[in-house]
Amino acid sequence: MAEAGQSKVFAPKEPPKLNPPKDTPLSLSHLAKCDGNTPSYSTYVAIKGTVFDVSGNTAYAPGGAYHIFAGKDPSRALALSSLKTEDCRSDWEDLAEKEKQVLNDWFTFFSKRYNIVGQVRS
Fold this sequence. Notes:
alpha+beta
């Protein structure tokens, strides 16, 4: 029941037309190139290993408020509501349930706005 309520809470006012999610494996080195600084690469943000294409949002572009997340899996920072460089990392499993829920909320938020283009693979 809570999921249905969350769907409405995190839904954008005008839902974008999203492509079917892709499961393309992406390395961390490739993800790092997708930080908005190289015009030939899209801008990506990963959450819990799932990679979202945020290219159309200037907040993730160089100089944008959330550029710190671009080209990374900043799951820990999102869970902690942090913009600190040291928190922009993929490990989150050791966090408290409250922070894990915040991270899940961010995942839901992104999944309703941005195309899933792949999965981070080692």
